[in-house]
Amino acid sequence: MSKTFLYRLFGIGKIPQKEFTNLKNEGILLQEEGISGTVILTNFRAPGKYFSKKLSWFSGSIVLTHQHILAFRFSKIMIGLSWNEPLLKQLNCYIDDKSRFCITYDASVFDDKCSGNIELRYSSDQSDKLLKIITEKLA
């Protein structure tokens, strides 16, 4: 998959510099920047928000280090967990029929003010490698 237009033109979807410095010190196992993605909110409720179904496109990145998994939507951290975090087992990671790396989870697990399902889909050339590393780390 090629990098998004926003990434090539403006660097949108790049790992934020303050995060990247820390991640580099942890030892990066896999890094994908400027990849297109979608976030799908289903029956999502948060203070002041309700969506029965909402799909949004973004340019983002994923980083796996020896200590953490981070998934970004633009420069916002959507998933930021250490490998020994018990909440990590609440994530459902898989590859869909279009070879996109997908992460689904219940919003209430990470924020008790929210409810509903969140699905992140990343169009990465390294989807298989991402899933393999995550599966090995969780075993």
What fraction strand? Answer: over 45%
Tally of helical segments: 4
Compressed to H and E, one letter per element, the order equals HHEEEEEEHEH
The amount of helix comes to 10-25%
Report the structural category.
alpha+beta
Written overview of the protein:
With 139 residues, the chain is α+β, with helices and mostly antiparallel strands. The protein has one domain: PH-domain like. Helix content is 23%, strand content 48%. It has a 7-stranded antiparallel β-sheet. The model has no long low-confidence stretch (mean pLDDT 94).
Would you spell out the secondary-structure blueprint of this structure?
Elements: H1 5-10, H2 17-26, E1 28-46, E2 49-65, E3 68-73, E4 76-82, E5 92-95, E6 101-106, H3 107-110, E7 115-122, H4 127-138
Brief summary:
The chain is of the alpha+beta class and 139 residues long. The protein has helices spanning 5-10, 17-26, 107-110, 127-138, and strands spanning 28-46, 49-65, 68-73, 76-82, 92-95, 101-106, 115-122. The chain has a single domain (5-138), classed as Roll (PH-domain like), CATH 2.30.29.
